[in-house]
Design brief:
The chain is mainly α. It contains 4 helices and no strands. Helix 2 crosses helix 3. It is rod-shaped and about 95 Å long. Belongs to the GASA family.
């Protein structure tokens, strides 16, 4: 009888160790993926002149003033070969685009 109890104890110890290992592995598999840092794509000179139209179409897609937005965006893109990502803001990605000002000192590029 004593031998049977040691065998059963050893079996349960091995079973507990195996379950613990599987649970630890499952926790690793279920953990959220590490955050990916998004690096702005592009920068000055990252576009070719023929790519400006598509980039400006997206940049001006959310405005109600599409015609002037497209006009100035394309003009700025032809000069800087860069259009900031998104439909608004992010001008720090393209310093040329950001720093080109009107005679009054306002931003020239949308």
């Amino acid at each position: 009888m004593a031998r049977l109890s040691w065998i059963s104890i050893a079996f349960f110890v091995i079973l507990a160790f195996a379950i613990n290992t599987l649970v630890a592995q499952w926790d690793i598999d279920q953990s959220p993926a590490p955050a990916v840092q998004i690096v702005p794509q592009g920068g000055e000179g990252s576009l070719k002149a023929e790519e400006c139209a598509g980039a400006c179409d997206f940049r001006c897609s959310a405005t109600s003033h599409k015609k002037p937005c497209l006009f100035f965006c394309n003009m700025c893109c032809q000069k800087c070969l860069c259009v900031p990502s998104g439909t608004y803001g992010h001008k720090e990605e393209c310093p040329c685009y950001n720093n080109w000002k009107t005679q009054e000192g306002g931003p020239k590029c949308p």
